[in-house]
Design goal:
Elements (H helix, E strand, L loop, with lengths): L21 E4 L2 E4 L3 H16 L1 H15 L13 H24 L7 H26 L7 H18 L10
Antiparallel strand pairs: 1-2
Helix pairs in contact: 2-3, 3-4, 3-5, 4-5
Length: about 170
């Protein structure tokens, strides 16, 4: 309450910290904006706690999308990379579906949250990765067919995990 006499600002234990000032905490440089920063930190910890495997799969997909692959005999097989794209995004979207249902088993969330988080977001993520491959790397190239394979993987995850029949198995 800035208008009250003797009111103190929250400094999160750092002397002299004020709202809107640059701070260094835990090795991360950030702008301290008060409660919003605290809420964002709590939200980040929530996702790390509720979706650990999904985050690991997303990091694996990012790594596999941007590392320089070695040349092997498998590169001679036509369209094998499209199968790999389908499998990566099937795994990512499927893991997002599974962890969403696991995290909201006791406290149900609206179903459209799962459709957005496990369907729409992986498709947008896929498009962003393909654009970054095209314009930000010299050893990778973005491809519309890779994007189509990624979307097919997400759609397969929708077909398997997005159906109401999975409730019968207690997942």
């Amino acid at each position: 309450m800035p208008g009250r006499i003797g009111a103190r600002r929250r400094t999160f234990g750092l002397p002299g910290a004020e709202y809107g000032r640059f701070m260094w905490r835990a090795g991360i440089f950030f702008v301290h904006l008060g409660r919003e920063t605290e809420r964002n930190r709590i939200a980040m910890l929530y996702f790390l706690k509720k979706y650990p495997l999904s985050l690991a799969v997303i990091l694996a997909v990012v790594y596999l999308s941007f590392f320089k692959p070695p040349s092997t005999g498998l590169s001679d097989i036509p369209n094998l990379d499209k199968v790999v794209h389908v499998c990566m995004y099937l795994g990512m979207a499927g893991m997002l579906w599974l962890e969403f249902h696991r995290a909201h088993r006791r406290h149900p969330a609206p179903r459209w949250h799962a459709w957005v988080g496990a369907g729409f977001c992986p498709i947008v993520f896929s498009g962003a990765v393909e654009l970054l491959q095209e314009y930000c790397t010299t050893y990778r190239g973005g491809d519309w067919m890779d994007f189509a394979a990624n979307v097919c993987g997400v759609l397969l995850a929708w077909a398997v995990m997005g159906r109401p029949w999975w409730h019968r198995f207690g997942l």
